[in-house]
Structure formats: C-alpha cells, structure tokens
Amino acid sequence: MSRYRGPRLRICRRLGDLPGLTRKVSKKQAPPGEHGEKNRKPSEYAVRLEEKQKLRFNYGVNEKQLFNYVKVAKKLQGSTGQVLLQLLEMRLDNTIFRLGMAPTIPAARQLVNHGHIYVNSRRVSVGSYQCKPGDIITVNDQTNSKSLIEKYLSFPGLANIPSHLELDSSQLIGKVNGIVEREWVALQLNELLIVEYYSRK
Predict the structure, then answer these.
(1) Which of left, alpha, beta for 117 (phi over 0: left; psi -120 to 50: alpha)?
(2) Cα(93)–Cα(130) distance, rounded to whole angstroms?
(3) Could you tell me the residue ranges of all domains in the chain?
(4) What architecture is the 91-178 domain classified under in CATH?
(5) Confidence label for 132 from pLDDT (cuts 50, 70 and 90)
(6) What confidence tens digit (pLDDT) does each residue in 143-166 have?
(7) Best exposed site among 8, 68, 91, 100 by fewest CB in 10 Å?
(8) Contact yes or no for 108/62 (Cβ under 8 A)
(9) CA of 99: how far to CAs of 5, 15, 116, 155, 164, in Å?
(10) How is residue 184 annotated by DSSP?
C-alpha cells in the first residue's frame, strides 16, 4: 500500500513544508533524531534522495508508483521533470485537494475511496485516476458527502486554486480546464534532481 501511516510532522521536520501531507506545523526547528542537525555537508546522492522523498511523501505514492511515473514522463514530449510533476498534479486525489474539497491529499484519497466523488457523472474510487482537461468533478448527492466537503471548503488547505482548475462552491462542482503549469505546483523542489536520481538506477 502507498499510504504512509507514520508520524507526519517527523517527515515535515526532515524534508521541509509538505502541504499535501499535513497542515500541522511543528514547534521544533531541528530535524528529527537523537542528534538533530548534522554539520557535515550532504552528498550529491543525499540531496537527490531528499528531493525524491519530498515528492513521494507529498503526493502519497510509493517507490514503485513513482518509478512508473518517471518512466511514463520520459516517454512523453517535454521536459521529463515538468511532465512528472504534471502527472502527479493531475491525479484525482491531488485535484480534489487543490480545489479545496479536502484539507490534505490523504483526506482527498479517502473521499475518493469511499465513493464521495464523481468524475463526468461516473463514480471513481481510485485516487490515482488521471484527470484530463474538460473533466467535471461532482460530489455524491448523499447529505453526508455534501456536508463533509462543505466543512472542508470552509477551511481550505491552500489559499489559492490553480489557474487550470475552477470551482463552483455553491453547487460543489469542480472543472479541469487544462494542464497545471509549473509555477502553480505548491511544492518547493528541484525536479531535475529527481530525474537524475532515477537516471542512475
């Protein structure tokens, strides 16, 4: 399973701000572990590994899934790093999170798995579903589905909805208008280092 079940703040203290993983903020500044910050300079491999781990934990994918995304990104036209980010950003669970319908990506995945979300009037229960331009995302007509998402919408995870998405909060309808652009990716990382990490495998 791809779901991370361990302490999330520990990951954020090690890797930095991961908006998709948790909304909590740690009071501790030092990295986790008995010895905290090590003064020695990290190796090139350690830097690449850290960037890769940021991507993994933020989007909630396991190693095999991420490796498969990299292989797909290499086959598509364009910069491999940017295409990889676009593939991850266009996942259904991330799209729901970016629309503000869920506070984190794990919460969005749970909404999808429990059948609260419809895409183009069809129930989709797989969080890794790839959204395409023109997709209409709606909420199950049941009262508990709507009340749950309305509660989440009152406290969105991120301040702004990306330019490629559109939300009608009164009707609880989201629309995908295009492919996400690089500047709208909420994660601070260098995607080229991730491509370099996998090119050495």
Answers:
(1) beta
(2) 9
(3) 8-87+187-199, 91-178
(4) Roll (3.10)
(5) very high
(6) 688 888 888 888 766 667 888 888
(7) 68
(8) no
(9) 24, 25, 15, 12, 10
(10) G
- Whether residue 20 contacts residue 94, with contact meaning beta carbons closer than 8 Å, is answered with yes
> Any residues with CB less than 8 A from the CB of 160 and at least 6 apart, and which?
none
Q: Residue 192: CA atoms inside 13 Å, Cβ hemisphere, count?
A: 2
- List strands edge to edge, sheet with 136-139: 122-123, 117-119, 136-139, 173-176, 165-168
3-state secondary structure 95-113: HHHHHCCCCCHHHHHHHHH
- 99-112 residue pLDDT tens: 888 888 888 898 99
Contact between 162 and 98 under an 8 Å Cβ cutoff? The reply is: yes
Chain centroid, CA 61 distance in Å: 9
* 30 residue type, one letter: A
Residue with tokens 């090139």: 44
Q: Right CATH number for 8-87+187-199 from 3.40.710.10, 1.10.1050.10, 2.60.40.1120, 3.30.930.10?
A: 1.10.1050.10
